[in-house]
């Protein structure tokens, strides 16, 4: 009997600029049916200070002009094009080998439940038409709004990719993303069961904001400043009263809720700054541990695959280990995916799903009425 040759892998680029606004990550990914996506090369385009400030001004802005919006969007798309060209040059791959670029865009506001009874929305700044023009690649973009239209939270989307990525391995696992916000994915060992995933709350967003208020630089390297402080239990308890932490899934959040003024509204002004930093790290660790405790874990010991920039924060990882004593921490690098590239990889995979008319969301995670094909296609 003749067997047909295996379908060769197609190349996709995933672009992610997360809520930390530290830069645009580009991942070149080889994807073939029935095998785990393979990471071929990576490129990080750092966010220039001017663009970062422009984007921060747009996040939960009360008043903004269309000219400011357009200027930030154009600069953002130019940086995305630089990231696409950078990741291809790294591997010597010509543009015409790329099936599509999956672009997440920059989240500037996320209100999946609406505000004050208004319509639900999630806003990602992006210009896929310009990106197609600048790169000469097919671009897939606007991944979140179809899930929202189907009654979902539009986030987190990465759990579907986590399932695809780790489907070749067996056993119950958790994937934890420590980005600006933290989200957790439960992959059951029994594949007949549904994946569970949700945002647990802030991860780096408040740590970065409080650090930058006191020191030059964007983040507390290895959590050294937090480690020099002591957790203020009264402050921590006050922060944990935020209703988001007590909502059952599906749930997702963003900068519109957790921002510097939110933190400052809980301070008396008498706290030592380093104690506030330690308490913020504790808030992240405790809210993640509380999220994990809600999961229907079938084993006492659990493998926790940790990704996102917060995985480099030694102090935060130590606090997590202390609140999750039964967890065995594993790096996704063991699967060929270093911790900083999973989210960009997710948007390469979502572009693949779109071009093959396959669903991108998991209704068990987002709460959507059903599976949906996510994103729109912009020809080169
Ligand atoms: N060595 C380190 N020590 C402490 N923190 C670090 C270190 N390296 C990275 N980080 C943190 O990781 C953050 C960037 O993480 P990442 O790129 O995963 O976020 P993101 O993609 O913007 O987030 P999100 O998942 O919310 O979209 C930095 O802002 C910083 O807070
Ligand atoms: C609306 C939005 O951009 N949400 C981000 C954010 O960053 C982490 C967490 O909050 C997650 O919900 C999501 O990103 C990842 C890529 C996701 O959708 O899975």
Automatic annotation (TrEMBL):
Catalytic activity: 1,6-anhydro-N-acetyl-beta-muramate + ATP + H2O = N-acetyl-D-muramate 6-phosphate + ADP + H(+)
Enzyme class, broadest EC rank: transferase
Enzyme Commission no: 2.7.1.170
A Gene Ontology BP annotation from the UniProt entry: peptidoglycan turnover
Keywords: ATP-binding, Carbohydrate metabolism, Kinase, Nucleotide-binding, Transferase
Source organism superkingdom: Bacteria
Gene Ontology molecular function, alphabetical: ATP binding; kinase activity; phosphotransferase activity, alcohol group as acceptor
UniProt: ATP binding residues: 18-25
Pathway(s) this gene product operates in, as recorded in its UniProt entry: Amino-sugar metabolism; 1,6-anhydro-N-acetylmuramate degradation; Cell wall biogenesis; peptidoglycan recycling
Keyword Nucleotide-binding applies: yes
InterPro entries: Anhydro_N_Ac-Mur_kinase, ATPase_NBD
Gene3D superfamilies registered for this protein in UniProt: 3.30.420.40
Role according to the record: Catalyzes the specific phosphorylation of 1,6-anhydro-N-acetylmuramic acid (anhMurNAc) with the simultaneous cleavage of the 1,6-anhydro ring, generating MurNAc-6-P. Is required for the utilization of anhMurNAc either imported from the medium or derived from its own cell wall murein, and thus plays a role in cell wall recycling.
NCBIfam families found in the cross-reference section: PRK09585.1-3 (NF007139)
Family: Belongs to the anhydro-N-acetylmuramic acid kinase family.
Name of the molecule in the record: Anhydro-N-acetylmuramic acid kinase
Species of the source: Vreelandella nigrificans
Gene name per UniProt: anmK
């Amino acid at each position: 009997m003749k067997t047909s040759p295996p379908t060769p892998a197609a190349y996709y680029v995933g672009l992610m600029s997360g809520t930390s606004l530290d830069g645009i990550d580009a991942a070149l990914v080889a994807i073939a049916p029935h095998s785990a996506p393979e990471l071929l090369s990576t490129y990080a385009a750092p966010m220039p200070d001017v663009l970062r400030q422009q984007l921060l001004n747009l996040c939960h802005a009360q008043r903004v002009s269309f000219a400011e919006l357009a200027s930030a969007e154009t600069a953002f798309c130019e940086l995305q094009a630089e990231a696409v060209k950078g990741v291809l040059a790294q591997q010597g791959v010509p543009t015409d080998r790329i099936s599509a670029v999956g672009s997440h865009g920059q989240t500037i506001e996320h209100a999946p439940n609406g505000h004050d009874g208004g319509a639900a929305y999630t806003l990602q700044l992006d210009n896929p038409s310009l990106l197609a023009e600048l790169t000469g690649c097919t671009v897939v973009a606007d991944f979140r709004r179809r899930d929202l239209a189907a009654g979902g939270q539009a986030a987190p989307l990465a759990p579907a990719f986590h399932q695809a990525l780790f489907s070749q391995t067996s056993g119950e696992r958790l994937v934890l993303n420590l980005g600006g916000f933290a989200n957790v994915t439960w992959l059951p060992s029994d594949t007949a069961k549904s994946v569970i995933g949700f945002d647990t709350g802030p991860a780096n967003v408040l740590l970065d904001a409080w650090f930058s208020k006191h020191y030059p630089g964007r983040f507390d390297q290895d959590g050294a400043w937090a480690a020099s402080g002591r957790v203020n239990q009264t402050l921590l308890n006050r922060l944990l009263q935020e209703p988001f932490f007590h909502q059952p899934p599906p749930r997702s959040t963003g900068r519109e809720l957790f921002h510097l003024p939110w933190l400052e509204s809980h301070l008396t002004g008498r706290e030592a700054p380093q104690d506030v930093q330690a308490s913020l790290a504790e808030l992240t660790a405790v809210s993640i541990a509380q999220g994990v405790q809600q999961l229907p874990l079938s084993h006492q010991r659990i493998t926790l695959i940790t990704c996102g920039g917060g995985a480099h924060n030694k102090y935060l990882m130590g606090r997590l280990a202390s609140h999750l004593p039964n967890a065995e921490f594993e790096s996704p690098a063991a699967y060929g995916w270093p911790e900083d590239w999973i989210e960009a990889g997710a948007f390469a995979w979502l572009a693949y799903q779109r071009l093959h008319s396959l669903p991108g969301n998991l209704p068990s995670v987002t709460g959507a009425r059903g599976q949906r094909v996510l994103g729109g296609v912009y020809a080169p």
